[in-house]
Amino acid sequence: MATNTDSPRGELPGDPDAAIRQLHSQYAPALHRYVERFCPDRASADDIVQETFIRAWRHLPQLRTDDRLIRPWLFRVARNLLTDANRALRARPMMAPGEPTWEAGTDSGLDRVLDQQLLSAALRHLSPAHQSVLLETFYRGGTTAAVARELGIPHGTARSRLHYALDALRQQFQEHDAIAR
Q: Under a CB-based contact definition with an 8 Å cutoff, are residues 179 and 122 in contact?
């Protein structure tokens, strides 16, 4: 069982650099483990933890005068930063791909319709679980970690479903190519 090494805020050293070094050495490992559970990659987690300690540094005068515990304050700041990052990610508009340039003299409209029909038919052969992970990842641009959170499944399960969905699509396309020849 983890020991609570949290101390009241008033026990921070007077030097701001020493105070932040003390806070970082005492709380950064646990804070990083917490943040990593909600970030798609380690770099994002590092950014959230770094921003948490920057905010602690900015609020050192208030942290020194209050007698409440520091650890809950740091975790609340990190949670708020995670929420802000998630909202910002969802608020970004989806970019529509630019119109491809087609060679003159080809009937690209027909090819495009046939490709869409082939893809739709291949997607129908997938299970709903595989379809949802594939669509969320490729058509909505989500990471497997974000898709896993959104669908309420473990990250490894989302990655596995994506792998098997792509494999099934690949097999469908290979079968179609074999028939078309």
A: no
Domain match, 71 and 18 both: yes
Q: CA-CA distance, 122 to 127, in Å (whole number)?
A: 11
Residues 83, 118, single domain; the answer is: no
Instruction: List, in sequence order, every residue forming a beta bridge with 173; answer none if it has no partner.
Output: none
**Is 85 domain-assigned?**
yes
Residues 55, 59, 65, 70, Cα dihedral to 10°: 0
CA distance 150 to 61: 39
Same domain? For 66 and 120 the reply is no
The pTM for the full model equals: 0.47
Nearest C-alpha neighbor of 58 from the set 95, 93, 19, 87: 19
Of 98, 103, 157, the C-alpha closest to 129 is 157
Contact 35, 78 (CB under 8 A): yes
Domain range enclosing 79: 9-90
pLDDT values of the chain reduced to their tens digit, one per residue, 181 residues: 444 455 544 477 778 888 889 899 999 999 999 999 988 889 999 999 999 999 989 988 888 777 778 889 999 999 999 998 888 877 766 665 665 555 555 555 677 777 777 777 777 888 888 888 888 888 788 888 888 898 899 999 989 988 998 888 888 878 777 666 5
Hey, is 8 helix, strand or coil? Answer: strand
